[in-house]
Please model this.
Amino acid sequence: MSDTKSDTKSGAESGTTTDGGRPGRRAPLIAAAVAIVAAIGITAAVGLNGGENPDGTSGSNAPVAEVSGGTDNTKAATVLDRPFTKPDLVLTDTKGQKYDLRERTKGKPTLIYFGYTHCPDVCPLTMSNIAIARKQLPKADQDKLQVVFVTTDPERDTAAELGKWLPAAGDPSFTGLTGDFSAIQAGARSIGIGIDPPTKEKDGTVVSMHGAQVIAFSPTTDQGYVLYGESTTADDYAKDLPKIVKGENP
Model:
């Protein structure tokens, strides 16, 4: 995989860190075409470029998200005509307790993001932006909104580690989840987000690559109907969250 930078709205993010947390390179994992295609109003595939799906089919048959048309490039949100089903994940939360994602977030507006605590840039920025926007909601809506951070690096991101990092990077109300990597990878893939297992290079650098999208799930349908890329700002989230909480299109 080439070490090209990705700063597109729906690109992928990776980081390499040493034990000192030194930022490293970033590379795309999944198609960045969604944001571009959305701007010209045609259908795009949001999925892996290769490999196997959880059901054993090839990567070319990964979930496809149909993107609503339109020419308003000022919007951060990409509204999907064919929403994603919420991942069927049962993992461990920061208290060390079993957490059934579908059961615990049923009927609640939910933002799901896959990342890792050693990320040098995009992951903490994304959590911070969402936290800033959440605080601008009325208290009742803050309580409704579920923000779920699923680690892509479960070997290092234990429940305790997530419990320390997430409140500082985002908000104490955010849910952090860890568990079996293969289950996490399959769950991410089911909503079109690619993840590679973290790898350690000869110089001791750890490389972790993952899709950098946030998927918003409706409280009325429990379907993932809105996609946000890594360039989404706190102001973008603040503008859209009141509608997300109600299950409306931003």
Q: What stands out?
A: Residues 1-11, 15-62, 64-71 have pLDDT under 50 and may be disordered. The longest strand covers residues 78-85.
